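Hi P.,

Sorry for the delay on this. The queue was packed all week, but I finally got your sequence through. Input first:
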Amino acid sequence: MTNSTSTPSYQGSMLMIVAPSGAGKSSLVNALLKDEAGLKLSLSTTTRTPRPGEVDGKDYRFLTKEDFLQERDQGHFLEWAEVHGHFYGTSKPWIESQMQAGSDVMLEIDWQGAQQIRELIPSVQWIFIFPPSIEALEERLRKRGQDDEATIQRRLAAAHVELLHAHEADYIVVNDSFDQALVDLKHILASSRLRSGPSMARNPALLKRLGV
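Then the structure:
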């Protein structure tokens, strides 16, 4: 499902990062956030149980299913989806406030959420992170030691489905070399900041003098 929202011009831009579990998405995003001033990561809301080391309000905003559904019905989510039996959502008020203030916002999201947001905000930039291979993806899932065998197999099956939607993205980044993948992401971010919508929103006085 989607929620209706307006699409005014914001000083900041929005980017969506989509990848199968184990493709290295979170590591790349964390490195990008460290290096790029003015880039904010959207904090997702979820009903799943926190993993070891995860902190409420830092890694995710953790809610009960009942509270999540109440907020959904009140229109608090830009998008929401049920993934692996748990609900995930993106806060609409937080995203809008950050972009209005001039920050660029990055969302770690699944392909279903990306489709929903693109319908509402066509200017959003969709980036798909590819693993070098399915074999490499399985190796990464096993090495991180967070999931049992059944969960690993479920994530691998989900990865095949996600990869079928990669052609819908604006950009493909293959995470074979971490350093090169990070450089590619920085180039995409730089390009998004030069798009006409954010650029015009950041320079209203100049445009007024030019009579635009």
